[in-house]
Amino acid sequence: MDSKKGTYASPDGSRTWEYLAIATSAVMAGCLGFVMGWNSPSIVILMADDSPIAVTASAASTLVAVVALGHLVGPPLNIFLADKLGRKVTILISFSPLIVSWGLITIATSIWELYVARFIAGFATGLFVCVAPMYIGEISSPSTRGAANSLIGIVYNTGILVTFIVAPYLTLSFTARVFFVFNVAAVVAFWFMPESPYFLVLRNRMEDAEGVLEKLRGKTDVSEELQTVIDSLSREEKGAAKTGSMSEVFTSRGNFMAFLSILLFSVTHHFGGFFTLIIYGQLILKTTSTAITDYTMNVIIGVTQVVASFVTIILVDKLGRKPLILVSGVLAALSNLVIGVFFYAKDYTSLDLQAYSLAPFIASIVLVFTFSCGLVCLQIILMSEIFATEVKAVSTCLVGVLGGVQGVVGCKLYIWVAITLGYGHSLPFLGYFVVVAICTAVIYRITPETKGKTFVEIQKKLNKSS
């Protein structure tokens, strides 16, 4: 046994290092929130008459789309890196291009430099979002795992909110410098965090795994938990050896139903108004004539996301998965309908809409809130509950890649329809209403209720004939 074993342990136990690992991971998630939040205020700055870099509407949509394009490259690489190099090392690797991205934006003088910077930011995001939940799940004890995953979402949304607040008041270059410093600080802090004990056992480094568990739990005896990790990995390896190919996702009814359910969640994110409001919110709300500025409305939407992150912790276990799917989907669909009808009336009729000028803003708040509490958080939760162990890695990767493709299409399609073709904001949001309504109905029909159900019960439900 190495000399470091027991250094951080005490007979009574202490979770100091477990909390530190969770907290630093959350800070890194907040840095990813900067990446997402950068779009909305920066596009307005870039499309202004006094823009430091001349950008057309088409170029602005491409600038958003390249993030999604970079995002789809990350998940396949994660399968190799996470199991070969480790969860911690993969997280550190994911932040290297992110630091380069912010550094490049600080010196950018052309749209092409911004394209490159945002592409590698998307790649970093795609890599991190695949490995971070894995790391959090493997270093957290059962009693803290739920809170840890919730904290990741809260800090991520806080990162978006912070960007909405500060970016409009700073130059693009100075904003990038600030985020560059935050990212470097996050990497330095995470450098000192322990590796996942599951990965160490996977690499047959039993003494290191025991030492890490002692550090995380602050106990001198972790033999019982270490054995649990060993047994868990033994079962997973047997399952992976049995199947695990991509064909298994489509040939097994249960696996396909699980995959289809999660994929439809992703469709609602990209073609249901949610990401459109997060990315283009300030640009869209700028066209409504209200007493509230587009900046204030955008910040309020950011606040809504953060509040929703806290509410989600309560709703998921109180209501169950299926009721939350239904309520979230119906409210999101109706919100899209309200926004679409308002802009249709504004652009294609002579009606005086001054009395209803706040309608799209209020509907946007409802849409972001219901998505954040339901269709967004439920995808993350259900991915850990309904994918069979033997196909979880390949299914997650496939969803990540297809989500990236949807992100590219969704970002470009909105600007193309609304601005380039000149149809305005009504047509996309009316389309979002239809997409969310149909997807919600199908998701509700094929997704089993997982609250209080064992993994075996969930799989039986998925495989049951219609």
Summarize the structure.
The protein is mainly alpha-helical and 466 residues long. The chain has 20 helices and no strands. It has helices spanning 16-37, 39-46, 57-71, 74-84, 87-107, 111-139, 142-166, 172-191, 197-202, 206-217, 223-242, 246-251, 253-271, 274-285, 294-319, 321-348, 359-386, 389-420, 426-446, 455-463.
Run of helices and strands:
HHHHHHHHHHHHHHHHHHHH
Largest sheet: none
Shape: globular
Radius of gyration: 23 Å
**Helix count from the secondary structure assignment:** 20
From the structure above, extract its key features.
mainly alpha, 466 residues, 79% helix, globular
Describe the structure.
The protein has 466 residues and is mostly helical. The protein is built from 20 helices and no strands. It has helices at residues 16-37, 39-46, 57-71, 74-84, 87-107, 111-139, 142-166, 172-191, 197-202, 206-217, 223-242, 246-251, 253-271, 274-285, 294-319, 321-348, 359-386, 389-420, 426-446, 455-463. Helix 15 packs antiparallel against helix 16 (321-348). The longest helix is centred in the last third of the chain and has 32 residues, at 389-420. The relative contact order is 0.13. The mean pLDDT is 84.
